[in-house]
Amino acid sequence: MDDAHGSGAGNRRMVIRRKLAAPDPEADTVRRDRLTQRIRSLVEHHRVVTVCASAGGGKTTAVAQALHGLDRPVAWLSLDGTERAPGRLLVYLEAAVEPHVPAAGQVASDALRDGIEFGEAAGLLAESLQGSELVLVCDNVERITVDEGSVDVLSALARYLPADVNLVLISRTGVPLEFGSIGGRSRVGELGEEDLAFDPDEAAAALRLTGHGDVDVQQVVDLTGGWVAGVLFEGWRTAGVADHRADALRDYLSANIFRTLSPTERTFLLHTSPLAEISVADAQALGRMDAARTMARLRSKRLPARWSRDGTRLTPHPQFREFLVDELARTEDPDRIRRLHRLHAELLVRQGALEEAVDALLRLGDTEGAWQQAAVALPDLVARMDFASAARWLDALDVSARKPTPEVGTVVLRVSFALEQCGRGNALLDRHGYDWLPGPDSPYFEEALLLAAWCQWHSGRLGEARALTERLPAGRAREVAENMLALADGGSPPFPAYAPAPSGTGDGLLMRIGYFRGRLQGMDRPARCEPWRSVLGAPWIIAGLRATGRLNEAMAMYEVRRESWQPPWLHAFDAVDLMIDLGRHDEAWAALERGRRLIADTGSRLYHVFGLLNEAKLCLRLDHDTEAADRALADALASGAADYAFSRELYQLWRGLSLLLRDRNAEARTELEACVASMRVGDRRLELATAAAYLAEAYWRLGEEEASDAAAELALAESAAQGSQHLLLTALTDVPAVAVREADASPTRMSRWHEITAALSGQDALRVVPRAPRLLLEEFGEPVLTLDGNQVQVRLSKSVELLSYLIGAGREVSRQELLDALFDSRNDAAGRSYLRQALHRLREVLPEALVPRQDGDRFSLASPDLVRGTTQTVLDALVEADHQDGEVRMGTLRDALARADRGPYLAPLPGLWVEQRRAEIGERVTGGRIEAAKLAFRLSRYREARRLVDQVLTTSPYREQAWQLAISLAHASGDDDSVLTLYQRYRVAMREFGVAPSAEMRRLVTQLRR
């Protein structure tokens, strides 16, 4: 770090380079030139460049070589994982760019102190680089991508970069940047594994440089796929230099690098291994008074490390540093190692790197020393929402045993809430009571009382939670607390509106309450990166998206967080519900088991109850196992399900379904009547449509037809009011006769019940595709094939047909089936040859991993998750739209139909199978247009509805629903003359098909003409 940067560098000794060191002169010239040209071209044409490949792929070296000599300033930040929190990452990025753009100093830090959220602070930092022509490189990005907040920071930085500034991200994994629009992706240029890999000529050149040019190069490349480190190690293994032991790299570093150094140089590197970046001053602080002289000697050695231009800073590559740390532990005296780490901790304290100092002191076992620094650092750590690190400190320092100050105690409560670990907060309250809680004059007063009440409420101490709530003054915190208590006592206090950003813990809690009360509007992904909602509220955003039928969005958000530290709700409840909805039996049970383990660590009585209720739901909906469901329900009741109104209602709901499945209808009616009544009184509407649908079935079986109709209408009305048609459809899947009866009783086939029965009878299951494809085939209109966003030209149209057929089949296909479909049943030599040519032409333009695979006479997609056709995207969207309502559904239908508007399926291609598939898809798209027109009519968007109906009647004049809708639109617009004109046109169209006008159409016209 440059001395000029001072304390603005944040709490870490960062790895920053003003200029890049010169590349290795022995590097292979052909590969270096190829990659340099490629990377410089990407930097020239794209504001953001991602270089993603596995470890040892040569990513960092390639970028360093490409940027060396570039007539632009370059800032380089190597991440080591300590930045896995958005606030900390922002500070490090700020420090990286400041030496080149002094105006950027403190921009992000000042913004964070002013309460500006992370994404906006990152945007301010990006905008401060205007006119600098800077290239900012972030290496080892994979170490922070598991943290959503850090990804949000990088996304905002990329989104707001000035036109003259570039961001280069080097990572072992993909970087999931969010641009907020499809167009934003065009700003990103990508260099991947295949770009970095050695081809045989380059591998041969590299192996010659290592003295092993006599090996079978093609065999090495085949075995390793061209992976740089793999080529070298496989070459050495083939030549007898290294074997297959797991520590081959360590042996190589030891024998070929470390042991070639003098004893003084080796000792110096070992004793400075605690440092990510070695400078003379820092090495001297660790007791190496010979630092200047030794580093001067090391400068001439070839080490896996980077040097600053002036030779004063040495940064070992991560693998080399890991080797040095291991070697220090293996060879040095424990007392000496301890003294080194003590000196390192003291250095960190002097530098103001308190967070790193706390971790260093904890590793030394110095809890008192660590506590002194942690007490200062904890509030900032939690303010940055780095809750995982804070929790680790709290546990290691046994903070609950220390008498809390109002500030530190509030930190404990915030961490408890953020990680859904009410047991952590309750331990503090049990040990020290309530006297330490902040008073009315403290800025923490309302937050601390609210979170303390939340901890007690979660553990079943409802009286204590009520007492704490009553100490809150009138205002938003009191309203949130009373809404929380109402979920237990059954009340229905007014629900406060979701607050605009910035918000705090109270608004994070309100999201959770709002979900159970069915306040789903406004719970979707916030437009801005607002931490308490977008980060900590993510599990409830996912739950809300799922409830409103936006399963693709819900699944995409879940996949990003699947392996993260996110609170138990995500894994114990969101994941189970999503897998149940998608019919993924094994994954649902796996999620439930994982959830049980996470719930056990929360200290929450309520989560334990909800876990059992979710188990009952899973048993009923996927396994139809009423005995197992009843056992889970009995356990839930014994654990306190009846103590909270909303858990009691869910117990009654699933108990009612279990009884229905066993035809114990009178008992089911009793449970479900109580459930519906309680939900309506308490204004808890999330599952009200579900309960009403089950109750309608119970009434019908008992002969109470009027009550059944009333319950069914309640279910439909609640579904429409809450926008939760997905939940209603899911319930009606359990009792489909309810929808069929109501549709039969409807006077017109335009009714909502007919729409619902059509959705229930659809043959296609809900599907989600959580990751973007690498290979996309545009199948509407003129076919277009794109690979990683770039168009690919295929020389044979049959190659496109082959690919489209395999995508549509979604399974392994025989050679005979392909010959029958693509070549008019020709099984002669010419047809087989043509099939081989079609496959060969795909191999010419696609990477091996994406070329269709042939195994004897069987063909399939090699990587089906990475290949997609737009036809399936549109069809999946139409199925998903059936589970949505209102504006959400309209948006999904619009997007799907816009893609289909490019033209018919594979428009220029002939062939019987293409024509059959084209007709099938055209029929589905036409049905989607009718559904969109009906929805637009219901939303009083008559112009849009008329445009959609006209499109349908132009291509499909036999669609009676379209004619009915056209006539209804004319009447709604006050054009009575057009009603008769349209009816006459309808009669002419039907006459052409030899069909008489339907009785329903005659009734409609007669009714409208009255």
From TrEMBL:
InterPro entries: AfsR-DnrI-RedD_regulator, BTAD, P-loop_NTPase, Sig_transdc_resp-reg_C-effctor, TPR-like_helical_dom_sf, WH-like_DNA-bd_sf, WHD_MalT. The keyword Transcription regulation applies. Residues 875-1009 form the Bacterial transcriptional activator domain. SUPFAM superfamilies: C-terminal effector domain of the bipartite response regulators (SSF46894), P-loop containing nucleoside triphosphate hydrolases (SSF52540), TPR-like (SSF48452). It holds the Pfam family WHD_MalT. It comes from the Bacteria. Keywords: Transcription, Transcription regulation, Two-component regulatory system. Gene3D superfamilies: P-loop containing nucleotide triphosphate hydrolases, Tetratricopeptide repeat domain, Winged helix-like DNA-binding domain superfamily/Winged helix DNA-binding domain. This is Transcriptional regulator. The lineage of its organism: Bacteria, Bacillati, Actinomycetota, Actinomycetes, Kitasatosporales.
